[in-house]
Amino acid sequence: xxxxxxxxxxxxxxxxxxxxxxxxxxxxxxxxxxxxxxxxxxxxxxxxxxxxxxxxxxxxxxxxxxxxxxxxxxxxxxxxxxxxxxxxxxxxxxxxxxxxxxxxxxxxxxxxxxxxxxxxxxxxxxxxxxxxxxxxxxxxxxxxxxxxxxxxxxxxxxxxxxxxxxxxxxxxxxxxxxxxxxxxxxxxxxxxxxxxxxxxxxxxxxx
Length: 207
Prior knowledge:
The protein is built from seven helices and eight strands. The chain has helices at about 10-15, 20-30, 60-65, 70-80, 115-120, 140-145, 185-190; strands at about 35-40, 50-55, 85-90, 105-110, 125-135, 150-160, 160-165, 200-205.
């Protein structure tokens, strides 16, 4: 893809699917007003449910896309013409570096296929805030071993349908391997743990 190409959420959604129902379920279950989406690329799905979202990505194509405010507004309006205007802020930055976001100011940190977001972005999460993470690059696996987080929800994904599970989660996050998992080894390998029961993403609450 040319570096001058300006991708759209519509085109990106065609390749990854629409994650909007997942964020609608999150917003319906918990009081989420502001979110931070690290490694977002051009996925606008959080803004279909959450009033204020900070998007962070280093990709220059994402920067060009978010710079077109009219296009961003039009794509969100096309998804739901009755939803009030969302606050969309884009940070062309590496989430591992300090961001122009106040510590403890967001209700939700989103870590999907973006690396060890929790290691660098927990500072922005308010006490009792939520982290949505998957096992890509090991983030959810590292957080599952952190006693300062509690598992409060699991998202399954099948045939385009996202289902939030908040009860009967005992079967999740059980490693297949008999060797006890080690957070340092997960960080070094950049790979998540294989579990006996898989999920698309996990919802953790920070203590």
